[in-house]
Structures are given as C-alpha cells and as structure tokens.
Write a structure and sequence with these properties.
Structural class of chain B: alpha+beta
Number of helices of chain A: 16
CATH class of the largest domain in chain B: Alpha Beta
CATH topology of the largest domain in chain B: Beta-lactamase
Number of helices of chain B: 24
Number of strands of chain B: 23
Shape of chain B: elongated
CATH superfamily of the largest domain in chain B: DD-peptidase/beta-lactamase superfamily
Number of strands of chain A: 3
Oligomer: heterodimer
Number of domains of chain A: 1
Helix content of chain A: over 70%
Chain lengths: 409, 599
C-alpha cells in the first residue's frame, strides 16, 4: 500500500494513461486507414516504432532534474531557430511546404522543436524577477521571441503551425496576467493587417472598430492616437508586403485566410470527412469496416483526418470517449499548472497546454466541418513521428514538474 | 514587479471554460452528425462518392526489322471476388468452373484477409469465354463475383525467341517498394529479356477515369461528365533487328536439338535471330501460368528457362583459330609466306595430336584445314598475354552488354592466372590446348557471334543489340538508339588473310564444304568443344556473303560431336533464309496494310 502511494505521489497517471489510450486509438485509426493503401501500409509499423521511441523519451524527460529546463531555455530556443533557418535551405518539400529536414530516409520537422523552444524562452523571459507584463518592453520582447519563429515558419510556408505559435503567445500572455488593454494593443494591429489584405472596406471597418475600443478604454489622447497610428501603419505595411508577393503566394494566403476561396481543394476533404463521421452513427461500422475509410475517399486520412476513422468505425460512442479523454487530460494539465507556484514552470505548463489545445480545437473543428481546413495534426492520434515525439516530450516535462512539484510550492 | 493576476483563479476559470466549451461544442456537433443526421450521411456515404479508376495503357508492341508484329496485346478476362459481398458457399462451383483444385479460393481469400473486404481479389486471369458467358448468365446468383478485361501479351508472328523477348509478371513487393509512383499491387512488369530492359518505354502512362460510385463501388455515373479524366498514354513500340522468317527457320532447325544460335547483322550490330533450345512457351507465361506447366519447366533437367545463347559457356574449339591468325598477322609475327610442316602433331612435353598430316601449311591453309599443329606452334609465338589481349579486343570472355540482362562473361586465362595456380614455373604445355580453343577457355554463343561479325566487318561493329529504336507515339517516327562502337584496331591485311581461309573452309577443301551454295558465298569455321561430361558440342561460325557480309552466325549444338556435320547446316539454312528475305525488298500490300493498322 505504501509503495503504491509513493508511486502515485511521484508519477501522475492522470497525465500518462490518457496519452497512452489516445495513442492506442491513433494506432487503430492509422492501421485501419493504411492497411489497404499500398503507398502507406508501412505507416502503422512506423508509428509503433515512433511510439516506443517517444515513450523512452518520456521517461528520460521525466527523470531529468527540473532545473534542466530552465538551463536549456535560451540555448534550446536559439538551436530551434537555427534549425528553422536550416530547413529553409536544406529542407525537403512535402505537399507544398519546405518543412522537413531529412536525415537519411528519416525526416523531422524543426517547427515541432521550435514550439517547445519558444515556450521555454518566453517562460524564462516572463518569469524574471522584475518583469512587468503590461510594460511596453516586456510585451515587445515577448512578441519578438514568439514572432521570429512564426516568420520563419511562414516562409516554409506552413500556416497551420504558425497559428499554434500565436496560440502559445496569447495564452502565455494571458496566464502571466496581461491586462485587457495591453492584450488589445497586442492584438489590434494583427487584426487590422489581416483586414487590410482583404480589401479597403474591411480595412476601414477594422480601423473604426479600433477607434471604438480606444474610446471604451479611455486612455489619454496622445497614447490612443499613437496606438491608432500604429494600427494604421500596420495595415499599410501588410498591404505593401502582400502586393510584393508573387500571385501564387497571394493566392495561398488568401485561400488560407478565406477558406471559401478554395471550395474544391479543401472542400472535398471536408465533405468526405463529414460523411465518414456522420455515417458512423451511434456505434460505428466496426473496425476495418468503414467504407469511407477503406475505400480511401479521404486522402492521407492517417494524418490530419485520423479522427474520421474513429468517427466512422467506432461511431458516436468511440468519438466522445476520445473527446472525454482529451477533456480529462486538459483539465489535469490546467490543475497542475494552477497548482505550480513557480512562475517559470507554470508558464511552461500553460504553454504546453496551449499547444495541445490549439491543435485539438483546430483539428477537430476542421474534421467536423465547423472550422476551415488548416492542416495540423491531432495530438497523440495522427500519424507522424515529429509531432508524436514533441507531444510526448512535452508530456514528459509536465510529468517531471509533477514529480518535483513539492520543491516548488 | 509581480502582478496578482499571474495564474489567478479567475484566469484559470476562463481557460477551464474555454476547454469545456470547446469539448461541448464538438460533442454537440458529433451528436448532430452521428445521431440526428446519421441517415443523411449514410445515404451520402453509399451514394455519391468520387473514385478514380486507373486506366491501363496498352503495352508497346515489338516489330521485327521489316515492321512485322512479333509481340502485341490481346484482351483477356480476369475473374475477381469481392469478399464483402461474396458467399463462400460458392467456392466449390466456381472452382469447378475455372478448373481449380478444391480449396483454391479459400486459400486466396485467406491470403488476402488482411486487406479490406471491399477490395476485389483477382482469382484467375485468362479465363475462357465460356466461363465469362456463364458468369454473365448467373450474375444474379453470384454476389461479389465479377470479371474485368485486361490485356495480355500475344505472339502473332509465330516466332518465339522466348529468352530474348522475356515475359511480364506481377510486380514483386521489393520492386513495388522501389517504384511506388509508377506501379500498384497487381501490376504487370517486364520480368526478363527485352520486356525487362525496355520496361520504362513499353509500359506507357496510366490514365484516370473519375466516376461516382456507391459504397459497393458500383459505378453510378461519370464525375463532371468525364471532364477531369486523364487518358492513358500507350507504351512505345519497339523496332527490333530480328527478321521473323529467319528467326522462324532457326527455331525450326533446333527442334529436338539442344543448343544455341545467334545471328548478327555485322553492318549494324543488330541481332537477326537468337535461339536457345529447348525453349519455353511464352503464351504460358503471358498471364496465367498453370501450376503444371511451371512445375514442368522448373523441373526439366534440360533447363528450358536458361538462355543458352548468352548464359551457357563452352570452349570455342577450332573457331578460335582465326583469333590467333589475326593476332600473329597484326603483330607481324607471321605473314602468308610463313609455313610450318604438319606431320600429324606437335610435341611440347607431351605429344599433341592433329587430325591429319597436312604437310606444309601456311596460315590460310591452316584455317581451311583446321590444322592443329600450325596453331599449337603459333600460340607459343604469340605468348599468353598478347593472346588474351587480342581475345579481349574481340570481346571474348566478357559480357557484350547486349540489351537483355541475362548474360555471363565466360573466361579467357592469362599468364597471371596460371602463375597463381601453378607457380612461376607453370607447365607451358597448357598453352597448346588453348591454341586450339580447348581447356580453360570458355565463351558464350553470343560472344562468338560478335567475334565472327567483327571479322566479317573488318574489326568494327556496334555493340550487339536487339532493339533498333522505338516509335514515337505522336509522330509515328522511329527514334533510333545509339550503340557504342567496338573497334578492334587491327590491320585490314590481317582480316583479308583470315577471311580468305574462312572462305576456303566452305568453298575450298575445308571442313564444311558440304554447305557450299551455288548462289551465296559463305565463309565459316567449324569447331568442336570438348566436353568432359559426355559427347562433344558442335560449333560453327560463319558469315555471308563473303564479299559484302550481311549476316554473321554462331551455332552451337550440344552433345552431337563434330561441328561441320551438325552445326554448319543450321547456319547455312539461316544464312540462306535471311539473304533471301531481301529479295523483292519492300513489303507486300497485305503487310503494308497490317503496318498501317497497327500504327
């Protein structure tokens, strides 16, 4: 009994077991969607190998001294930036993006590593003793840390992953305690810039909205005016950059910002995904018996659309079991984050949660057809070595924090 | 400055709310899709789904040098079973209809159990029309059973240099792994011979046809009315150097015999005919190969699958004598006035026999009479390494790099080889045997054909090859391949002398006078390869016409004894047929029409 207590005290099964079950669901989905696909049938075995490597990585990460993560924060960040630069030079094109570095026949995506690198760096910066989240300097430096990898990833170009970084920055700002006015100052230029790309009318409407907010916040006139001027210039700047791009790049950005611009390209996937899930019914069609999956109506279903397999073959029951496990995992992480009094550790935890959460919401929103098609994988479920390694590595960090939590409260 | 806001309960609650809300929204959406609208989606799932169907391109055909079709395609029926709809109680009746052993279908279904039940399994290819009619009549009672039409290889000219053509076979998993982009499981690829070498040209490009299918994969119409369809592109047709009537005669001449024949056009290096006997029936390999046939072919002690023309090596016997004569002449070691006296043999350590007492012989008569004594002596004049060097110039003991992959190199020894084996003082008496092409010297029939073609063409020729070029699909024009030229760099005078000797072999008092023809001047040389395992093998190499050689031949007949008797007549027939095929050049009207139709 005592031994059992000790294990639970040092090891959070509430983090580990849900991830393991999700991994199992993922393997089932990958197996089912690739078994008939001669081009991908070995992906199942590959994912198992990745899974084993990831679990080893988990226990290594779990056993490291917690201070280690503080030590590697800045060098880790710089290394991941270096790799993001490297991928632009030596990277391999996979479905339109230059996001893979190949080592022999193995490939990995530096953008995955950059996620945790950025989280650690922002956490290290914001947990300084004399930090003030509402100060101009702190906001600017944090944004610089976060936006540098975004720019490099946009060059690949990989829109989906960039959004994850935006999620990380916002969530960490929020957790650190940013005021709603500062948040407004951070968000409004981005909002105006996007509106400017859509056209003049949207640009003007966005500026009017900014004015309304400025009026609500009631800061002094000079400050408000300079914020407005900044918004205005960000709009012009975005428009200028956009015009400088080549037409096919413009088109890519437009279709990313406006999913309706490309109804057939991504629409086909969404329709097939919805049909797959919807036709699953309450109990599903049974493992390996989903015709949408088995007839390969959804291209590369084992990656971003892996959840469809669960929806089609395991039905509503299987689908909500998976949702339930995610819910449990997220709340568990949130609780751990809240209970961690050390600012650095707490910020890292919330950063990690934000990565999982953004992936979860965008991926599932896309699969069930309520969000545009943005290709990012579902954590622990979708096929892919880099993302599985990163997700499990981050889980290892959380488990590590849990192990040593009493030293930091 | 620390703010109280850091990780506050309020902020935690907001995040908590975001998480829970998103899960609730997703659950609601799933409930809406999977419970409320399930039926709609189910209908869609079984209704309108777009599926791309691969359209197989026609494989390129083979033409002979006169554009006669040697290899083409005909449709054949393939029976398939889709396990999801199939009732295994039908096994017995279908097995009876396709004449398969009991348990055949059960076994195939078992082997394919790891794949989706919705994928059709090919049960038997090349089913006959009676079976197709039966399937059509009973389709209602045969759920999950259907047939498709696939193309199979067909050999309309009635000639079958099986080892050269090769056959296509279902792609192997290893091969598929390497070329995923071009093939899928069940595709046929060239397995050997020309089908393998020219696979990339022959296979063409797959097309795609988009159809709307229901979940049973039943087609319910075209997608976008076929606007997005991609038509397959036919494979390129190959033009071979083979001459159909010559090939046919060569094959007939070998009925009941074991051996090989290679005929080369010395002016171009093109193979005119190639036989390896016994052979196998390509029709049996073109699609469905019956177990019985395979077993017979594999177990046959005469190894019909083995290409004797390019993979079987034998000592060249007396056919190698021209090599020595050329070498000695080219090096200036002898000239036509150099003579020796043949008293019936030669002593070097021991006595080496000649097959007669030829008296005083010069190099021309030595070839004409095949005098061993002359060549026993000559090889000592030349020496091992120079002998090997000249043999190499003619490509003996090396692969010719002909355009099929099944080829071996044979062996020509040099001084080092014997030093390694017997030490510095190796017994030089070995050389005497080598001088008459016996002992540790081995060549393929193809190499000997190349050697005699090079002699015929005075030391220069393109690398031997089957395929002249391919026909471009759009223009219908022949695109010729470029082949490397072999140049022996040997003086013309040496060739003139040796060819004179070869002329006399047939037209003087030589060893093959019985194949003399009134209208065609054949030059040649007989040979006998000593065979320690049984009766000797007979060789004949030759070319014709003497003045302006158009064909060079090497013939090997196994286990029959003297070459003049058994191999030379075959060569004569082949030479005659080929040179007669020129008469009246051009093609008959009927042939012209056939060509137009085929293009």
């Amino acid at each position: 009994m005592r031994i059992d207590y000790n294990i639970k005290d040092k090891f959070d099964f509430g983090l580990f077991l849900p991830a393991l079950v999700l991994l199992g669901f993922g393997l089932a989905a990958i197996y089912s969607s690739t078994v008939n696909n001669i081009l991908a049938h070995e992906n199942f075995q590959r994912q198992i190998v990745w899974g084993v490597i990831a679990l080893i990585l988990f226990f290594i990460t779990y056993s490291l001294p917690t201070n280690f993560f503080k030590t590697i924060a800045i060098p880790g960040y710089l290394i991941s930036l270096g790799l993001l630069l490297a991928v632009l030079v030596i990277g391999k094109h996979v479905s339109g993006s230059k996001s893979w570095i190949m080592i022999g026949s193995m490939g990995f995506q530096p953008s995955e590593l950059a996620k945790i690198g950025t989280i650690l760096a922002i956490a290290a910066y914001l947990s300084r003793n004399n930090s003030n989240i509402d100060s101009f300097k702190d906001i600017l430096v944090t944004l610089a840390i976060g936006i540098t990898p975004i720019l490099l990833i946009l060059l690949e170009p990989d829109m989906g992953t960039s959004i994850v970084f935006i999620g990380i920055i916002l969530m960490m700002f929020f957790w650190k305690g940013i005021s709603s006015f500062s948040l407004f100052v951070v968000l409004s230029p981005a909002f105006v810039a996007i509106a400017a790309i859509f056209g003049l009318i949207y640009f003007i409407l966005a500026l009017i909205l900014v004015l309304v907010f400025l009026f609500i916040f009631k800061r002094n006139l000079f400050f408000s005016a300079s914020i407005f001027a900044f918004n205005l210039s960000s709009g012009f700047f975005a428009d200028y950059i956009f015009r400088a791009l080549s037409p096919h790049q413009q088109k890519r950005i437009q279709s990313f910002l406006d999913p309706m611009a490309d109804p057939l390209g991504s629409g086909y996937n969404t329709i097939q995904a919805k049909v797959a899930i919807g036709s699953g019914g309450l109990t599903g069609k049974g493992f390996l018996a989903g015709n949408q999956t088995q007839l390969q109506f959804i291209p590369e279903q084992w990656t971003d659309f892996a959840y469809c397999v669960i929806g089609e073959e395991f039905g509503f029951i299987g689908s909500i079991i998976v949702l339930g496990i995610f819910l449990f995992l997220f709340l568990r992480i949130l609780k751990l984050t809240h209970n961690t009094k050390d600012e650095f550790l707490s910020l890292v935890s919330i950063g990690i949660l934000s990565v999982y959460l953004v992936h979860f919401i965008i991926n599932l929103g896309m699969v069930v057809g309520i969000l545009p098609v943005i290709g990012i994988p579902l954590p622990f479920i979708s096929y892919g070595g880099s993302s599985l390694l990163l997700n499990i590595f981050m889980l290892g960090i959380l488990a590590n924090f849990y192990r040593t939590r009493k030293n930091y409260t | 400055m620390k703010t109280d806001n850091f990780g506050s309960l309020k902020r935690k609650t907001i995040i908590y709310f975001v998480i829970v809300t998103s899960v609730i929204i997703l659950t609601g959406r799933l409930f809406q899709m999977q419970i409320l609208h399930r039926v709609d989606y189910e209908i869609k799932s079984s209704d309108n789904s777009i599926k791309s169907l691969e359209l197989e391109p026609l494989r390129g055909v083979f033409y002979d040098r006169n554009y006669k079709v040697l290899v083409s395609n005909i449709p054949a029926y393939t029976l398939r079973i889709t396990p999801a709809y199939y009732d295994t109680s039908l096994n017995k009746i279908i097995e009876t209809v396709i004449d398969a052993e009991s348990g055949y279908i059960k076994n195939l279904l078992y082997l394919n159990r790891i794949y989706s039940k919705y994928l059709a399994i090919k049960i038997r290819r090349d089913i006959d029309f009676k079976t197709v009619a039966w399937l059509e009549e009973n389709s209602e009672h045969l759920p999950g059973v259907d047939y498709i039409i696939e193309m199979q290889r067909y050999y309309p000219a009635g000639v079958m240099p099986s080892h050269a053509f090769g056959y296509t076979k279902e792609i192997s998993p290893d091969h598929l792994e390497k070329e995923k982009d071009n093939y899928k499981l069940g595709d046929y690829v060239g397995h050997n011979g020309l089908e393998k070498t020219y696979e990339k040209l022959l296979r063409g490009t797959k097309g795609y046809h988009y159809v709307l299918v229901d979940s049973r994969r039943k087609q319910i119409g075209k997608y976008l009315n076929g606007a997005d369809d991609v038509l397959p592109i036919k494979g390129n047709d190959l033009v071979l150097g083979i001459e159909a009537s010559t090939q046919k005669v060569a094959e007939e001449e070998f009925t009941g015999k074991r051996g090989a024949l290679v005929a080369i056009d010395p002016t171009s290096g093109e193979i005119i005919a190639m036989v390896s006997s016994p052979s196998y029936d390509l029709n049996q390999f073109s699609f469905f190969t019956s177990k019985d046939y395979l077993e017979n072919v594999y177990k046959d002690p005469e190894k019909p699958l083995f290409n004797r023309a390019t993979m079987s090596v034998n000592p060249p016997g007396s056919t190698i004598k021209m090599l020595e004569a050329i070498t000695a002449l080219d090096l200036g070691l002898i000239n036509t006035s150099y003579t020796i006296f043949c008293g019936g043999g030669f002593t070097y350590g021991r006595f080496f026999k000649c097959h007669g007492s030829h008296g005083t012989v010069n190099v021309v008569t030595a070839i004409e009479k095949s005098c061993n004594t002359f060549f026993y002596k000559l090889i000592y004049k030349i020496g091992m390494d120079r002998w090997k060097e000249y043999a190499t110039r003619f490509g003996l003991g090396q692969k010719t790099s002909i355009d099929i992959t099944e080829e071996v190199s044979g062996f020509i020894p040099d001084e080092n080889y014997y030093k390694k084996r017997y030490g510095e003082n190796w017994p030089k008496s070995i050389m005497a045997s080598l001088g008459i092409g016996q002992g540790e010297v081995s060549v393929t029939s193809l190499q000997l054909a190349q050697y005699v073609a090079l002699i015929a063409n005075n030391g220069k020729m393109k690398t031997p090859h089957f395929v002249r070029g391919y026909i471009e699909n759009e223009s219908g024009k022949l695109v010729s391949f470029d082949y490397k030229e072999i140049n022996t760099n040997i003086s013309q005078a040496a060739f003139d002398v040796v060819k004179k000797g070869m002329f006399l072999v047939v037209n003087g008092h030589g060893t093959a006078t019985h194949i003399r023809l009134p209208d065609i001047e054949i030059a040649g040389k007989t040979g006998t390869a000593q065979n320690p395992h049984g009766e000797d093998h007979a060789w004949f190499v030759g070319f014709a016409p003497y003045e302006n050689p158009q064909i060079a031949v090497a013939v090997l007949v196994e286990n029959v004894g003297f070459g003049g008797t058994h191999a030379a007549p075959i060569a004569k027939k082949v030479i005659q047929t080929y040179l007669n095929s020129f008469k009246g050049e051009g093609k008959t009207l009927k042939e012209e029409i056939a060509i137009l139709k085929n293009n």
